[in-house]
Amino acid sequence: MLHPLDPQSDPFHEWPTRSPLGALTVMLYHPTIYDAVSSALTRLPQSIPTRLSSHPKWLAFIRFKEICERAYGSTPRNMTSLCDNLQHSTMGVTHPDDARSAQCSQCCSAVYCSPQCQQHDWKIHRDECGARYIDRIYQRADRAWFSHRTRGMLLQLLQAFLEDFCDNFQDPREAL
Ligand SMILES: [Zn+2]
Ligand SMILES: [Zn+2]
After folding, report:
1. Do 95 and 127 belong to one domain?
2. What distance in angstroms lies between residue 74's CA and the mean position of ligand 1's atoms?
3. Is 135 within a domain?
4. Which bound ligand lies closest to the C-alpha atom of 129?
5. Which ligand is located closest to the Cα atom of residue 126?
6. Domain MYND-type, which positions (predicted)?
7. Tens-place pLDDT, residues 14-27
């Protein structure tokens, strides 16, 4: 991807309209690809990142890689506790960090952090459970179904984006 490197030319200049690095940047959201790219980056000769260090496409790539690192690099993966109980935050439910969420066994669509949340939500969910079962079949057929694992992964990434945003936020009023 980074060849040929003519020292005098833009390393991305000869690439076709769809930038391979741009495509790779987008795919980094997937932990398996992030792992592979992260490992490959450690094996790059230092001269390459140094040479690319001010290139906008490279900077965007590294920036997104840092956010993925925040999401996937240290915290345990697939441990995000999902809960479809809208009253979850008021339930005072405590569970160990490694607790896995359990899905509704009838529709396999709703997921809960605990039996308490599932029981509490049943008042609402019982009226939608049948419809969600059907929806899930159609979504799977259309390849539009997100597994609970993928939902957890995307939530982890969203959390990393928000944390990064908060860390780097500068109030425009402070600049006045
Ligand atoms: Zn819950
Ligand atoms: Zn259900």
Report:
1. yes
2. 24
3. yes
4. 2
5. 2
6. 80-129
7. 666 677 888 888 89
